Amino acid sequence: MNNFKYRNPTKILFGKGQIENLATEIPADAKILMLYGGGSIMKNGVYEQVKKALSDYEVVEFGGIPANPEYSVLVDALKVIKEENITYLLAVGGGSVIDGTKFLSAAALYEGETPWELLTNKKPVTEGMPFGTVLTLPATGSEMNSGSVITRAETKEKLAFGGPGMFPQFSILDPEVIKSIPERQIANGITDAFTHVMEQYMTYPIGAKLQDRFAESIMQTLVETAPAIMKDPSDYEAASNFMWSCTMALNGLIQQGVPGDWAIHSMGHELTAMYGIDHARTLAILAGNHYRYNFETKKEKLAQYAERVWNITEGSLEDKAHAGINKTEEFFKSLGIDLKLSEYTENYSETGSTVAERFIERGWNGLGEHKTLTPTDAQKIIEMSY
């Protein structure tokens, strides 16, 4: 197991009725900017609950943060922060709203030429305006980590950044919000969380037995819970396990002391930036072929995964490893996820080479857990996924 330092300062308020405790978590003298997305919170009762809980505060609202948090929209929100002398941010939404709020937290205190530099200079963010979150869509784990991904439409880029200054002070997780989430978004959330675990787990054995068991238990829970939550989003027990699994998948716990891959995400972000494909679906498109392409370096963990998560005990190590890949794709398909890029766009023929060129321009010459996955390798994996 590798050396590691671990700290997660985010306070979690989990369960029914927790939104009413908002006022206990935010300073009494705060001037709040409440950020949200397309307006679903107006329909599912969350908006009303939040406003009631914040009735004693001065609250300014900013809605319309898109599914892939758009830089130009966030720049408009940044102007509001400065013009209104905002002192506290509250994200009410899913991962995109939370990621956008993290960007605004950092940008509000950034003194450089342009806040886009936060995504390009690769320097960890050490301080930001304080913020909390009310989670409405489990998927990304952004409610309990310090990372963020922002899209810039004008340049067709989707880049990640983060740092110790970007943890939410608190996050409210009420599983009852899931009953109003469309089936497509639930499928996306399951797929996103499952792939988050795979990116931290599907590398090579390093003797981190507890982290492996943590990771496997999250994947097992998602597999067991998926049919129930897809069938009935109002099933509170299923919703609770689904929501907490999504949070645990990317709150930093299972990545301690182990190598991480994240090449699937690097490639997937490009597909979203180029074609607007749902983030989770880009991961599903690429995952199986990524593991096939890197089979020799991943086969031991693939076989372990097949045995422990899918109960595949017969055959050679290689047989079990291949079966694990196939089971993963079958799982994504069972959620209604298409696994070929050509099922999302007709303009896929140059995608691999375009992504490779972008990686070369950014100097991304060594991705994956071994830092050996080249832009040419990425091109081949994407082309396998057409």
UniProtKB/TrEMBL annotation:
Q: Among the entry's GO cellular component annotations, what is one? A: cytosol
Does the record's keyword annotation contain Oxidoreductase? yes
Sorted keywords for this record are: Oxidoreductase
Domain Alcohol dehydrogenase iron-type/glycerol dehydrogenase GldA: residue ranges: 9-175
Q: Enumerate the GO terms in the molecular function aspect.
A: alcohol dehydrogenase (NADP+) activity; butanol dehydrogenase (NAD+) activity; metal ion binding; methylglyoxal reductase (NADPH) (acetol producing) activity
Q: For the Fe-containing alcohol dehydrogenase-like C-terminal domain, which residue ranges apply? A: 188-360
What domain of life is recorded for the organism? Bacteria
Which family, according to the similarity comment? Belongs to the iron-containing alcohol dehydrogenase family.
Protein name as annotated = NADP-dependent alcohol dehydrogenase
What organism does the record attribute this protein to? Kaistella chaponensis
